[in-house]
Specification:
The strands form 2 sheets. The protein has a 6-stranded parallel beta sheet, covered by helices on one side. The chain has a 6-stranded mixed beta sheet with strand order 7-8-9-10-12-11. It folds into 2 domains: about 190 residues, inorganic pyrophosphatase (n-terminal core) (Alpha-Beta Complex), CATH 3.90.1640; about 120 residues, Diaminopimelate Epimerase, Chain A, domain 1. It is built from 12 helices and 12 strands. Helix content is about 40%, strand content about 20%.
């Protein structure tokens, strides 16, 4: 057993009542790892409550989890809080913050620069996803990845690896996916459910954004932007932007893709890169974080200034690479 995992596994075995959460506005890894951890703890006979301040995005409604995900703190306080896929305590949201300071916290994450804010911390930057880490826990605890547990781990795996296309896809990642398939998951129906969540409004909004995509830094950077006016006019919202930044990354000659989204608190930015270009370093300049090839954060400036600021910072990083 990995030395750093031993105290976490012992604590899980010895503790009964858990609250499990992931970062606000959860993506497939955050949601998949949270739901998988819930199934794992339940299989061990534990009491478990799932919490996410912003709830389940509508694009994941097809999951129909059998356990409710609370958006407010439960009346019964847990013995231990398990925090998944949060690169910092701030990513958990505002509601849970007092409990993080007063209870035993197990912090399980794979982001670069995680400050290890938990009582116990398992930070595995090489891991494809936090879902893969939950899968490792299930093996160590003797719980097979069948049924919903396997589905949720698989969702996390494919979400953070781009369907096993990104460089974070390791042999161990594919071996875990194969294990889940051997235990009964059918990838065809699973992917059909996952992909069949779009709307015509979303499709038309994305088409408009793609028509306005621009090239910068001598064709090495693509940029797309989503404004509140666009969302209002097309009847769409922030979650309809998911994944489009990956599409514009694969323009010929492009090394970095930048996506900007106008929100109440500023401009949310997402960065994607190819090869050795480190966009996590760019995000960190503005208080953000993530991974070498996928990172993000928020700029509290107008859209025009955000575009200029990020293009300049990304170009400087490309020139250093």
């Amino acid at each position: 057993m990995m030395p750093h995992l031993k105290p976490i596994i012992e604590h899980i075995r010895e503790t009964d009542n858990f609250l499990v959460l992931s970062h606000v506005s959860p993506d497939g890894d955050a949601l998949g790892s949270m739901l998988a951890m819930g199934e794992l703890l339940a299989a061990l006979g534990k009491r478990v409550t799932l919490f996410n301040e912003s709830g389940i995005p509508s694009r994941f409604s097809w999951l129909a989890p059998k356990r409710e995900i609370l958006t407010a703190l439960p009346e019964n306080e847990p013995d231990t809080i398990i925090v998944l896929d949060c690169g910092s305590a701030e990513r958990t949201g505002e509601v849970i913050r007092p409990w993080l300071a007063s209870k035993t916290v197990i912090n399980i994450d794979h982001h670069l620069g995680n400050p290890k804010f938990g009582t116990m911390n398992w930070i595995e930057e090489r891991s494809s996803s936090v879902g893969e880490m939950v899968g490792i826990l299930s093996r160590k605890l003797g719980v097979p990845m069948v049924g919903l547990l396997g589905e949720y781990v698989y969702l996390a795996l494919i979400s953070d690896t781009g369907d096993f296309c990104f460089n974070n896809t390791r042999p161990e990642t594919l071996e875990m996916a194969a294990e889940i398939l051997r235990l009964g998951l059918l990838p065809g129906p699973f992917h059909e459910q996952k992909q069949s969540t779009g709307t015509l409004n979303q499709l038309q909004m994305r088409g408009e954004v793609l028509r306005q995509a621009s090239l910068h830094a001598g064709g090495r950077v693509t940029l797309i932007a989503f404004t509140r006016e666009l969302f209002e006019r097309t009847g769409t919202g922030p979650e309809d932007t998911e994944g489009l930044v990956n599409t514009v990354l694969y323009v010929r000659g492009v090394q970095v893709a930048v996506s900007l989204r106008e929100e109440d608190k500023g401009i949310k930015f997402s960065l994607r890169s190819k090869g050795s270009v480190n966009v996590q370093a760019v995000a960190a300049l503005f208080g953000g974080g993530g991974h070498r090839n996928a990172a993000g954060g928020t700029l509290e400036v107008p859209m025009g200034e955000a575009k200029a600021t990020l293009i300049r910072a990304v170009t400087e990083e490309l020139d250093r690479a």
